[in-house]
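I'd like us to work through together how a protein chain folds, taking it slowly. To get us started, please write out a protein record for me. Go ahead whenever you are ready, and we will take it from there:
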Amino acid sequence: MSELVKPMNEGNLDIVRAARLSVAPMMDWTDRHCRYLHRLLSAHTLLYTEMVTAPALVRGGALRLLDFSPQEHPVALQLGGSDPVELAQAARFGAEAGYDQVDLNCGCPSDRVQSGTFGAILMRSPGLVADCVAAMCAAVDIEVTVKCRIGVDDQEPREVLPAFLDAVRGAGCRRVVIHARKAWLKGLSPKENRDVPPLDYDLVVAMKQAFPDLHLSINGGIDSLDTAEALLARGLDGVMIGRAAYHQPWDILAAADARIFGAERAPTAPEDIVRQMLPYIEAHLAQGGRLHQVTRHMMGLFAGRPGARGWRRLLSEEATRDGAGPEVVERALERVPAIA
């Protein structure tokens, strides 16, 4: 093993435990309001920011993008970029802001990301990724991780993925999240890249066997805690859930602490979560925010429950109106019949 590899230390143990289950970084979805809601549902699950580009922080000075609530911990900052110097500075900003972990995005396939020479296109440049990781590790004391694909385009995953993992491990990365699909950089949209390329969970499991010293989490197509538990039982260290956690947050996150982390206490009902959100909403409005900026993330709280459609419809129609406040949420809650 390379001498650059940082050993897991005691200060990292909590974040490593949290990484047993995480909510994927999702552009336009996992903002600070979404994360606050998710933290009310699960005390232990690791939460991620949306991807923040290093140039936006370093060149653009957009440090407001790093704002988050202390209640969100444990929370990871995901960065996009390909310049080691910029990424190191952006990682410093993240550490100074109080994030528990900083992650390098090597998996996003969008055209905009490719044009910036970061995201999934970095799967073609493991040496550059290693340079970026090494610079970030040298800049901060918090954990530096990588999220990647199993390959891109015509690459052979069973050849390129081990080489990629070996490179980032040698640079000091000890934890990697692997989206178990290829990314097709030409010909598929970002949405299609989440569904069309076939999943290869077996390859990710094989990588854990080949790299037992790495903490490997799996991502892609996981839509239930049953599936998450089955993957953990195969020897993987963590599972990352994306869209299912967003659209069915009660089903996924409210049960996660008990099922994944062995905690005894869990939220009792989604209605309780809604009521706990009201003071947060009031504070957000008092600071000049808009109601829909928060409530858009609450749409799926009652997924599968009677009244869920009425809840979503009222919030969709009224939360965007000028002057909309907590009373809109309370009226929407009246659309959901109580369960005896």
